[in-house]
Description:
TIM Barrel; 220 residues; five-stranded mixed sheet; 10 strands; 6 helices
Amino acid sequence: MIRIDPHIHSVYSGDARGTPSEILRRASAIGLDAVAVADHNTMKGSIIAFRESRGMEVTVVPAMELSTSAGHIVALGIQEEIQRGLTPAETLDAIHDQDGAAIIPHPFVRYRQGLFVNERNIRVDGIETLNSRYIVGYSNWRARKFARKRGIPEIGASDAHFVEAVGSSFTLVDSEGEADDILHGILKGKTEPAGSRTPLPLIVREVINKKFLGRMRNYV
C-alpha cells in the first residue's frame, strides 16, 4: 500500500507558506511514499517538486487545484496546466483528455468553493472524504456518505497550507510506487482515507500568521 497526500499547497498558491523542497522533506520525514503539490490554478509548485524529488524516495504526482465556474477540482496526473474558470464539465474533459483524475476537494463547503454546493451530477474520479482542515467532522461525514452512495473512490488529504500539516490525512492506495501506478489505483477505486484532522492549535496559529502578514503587506 502506498501512502500519498494528494492535496498540498506550496508558496505558489499565494495563500500557503511551504516551499516544494520543504514539503518533500516533511513528506520523507513522516514516511509518505508520494505527494501531489496541487496549487491554486498553477502547476509551478508541482513542477518544481517533481524536479527536486530526484534522488529522493518520495514520488511526486503532478497536480493543480482548479477554480471552475462552480467550484474547485483537483487535477491529478496531468502534464499541462488547464485554464481556470471553465465549467465543471469542461474542466473534467480537459483533465480526462490528459488521462488525469478529477478529485473533488472539500465538496460541500461553500466558503472553500466546494463544487457539490453548486453541481453534483457530474462524472468525477474521487471525492475527499477525509480533509484535514475541517475543525469538526460533519463535512467529512457528509462527503463520505455521498461517495459511498454513488460508489465513488474516497480520498484522504491534508489540504496543507503549511508544512507541519503535510500528511495529517492521506490516502492509502493499493498500487506500486510510480506516479502512473498510483493514479491507476485511484481510478480503480483502490483507495482508503487515513489519518486525522490537523490539530486545532496549528490551524489557529496559521490564521493568526496570515492576518499578521496581511497587515504587514498593507504597510509595505
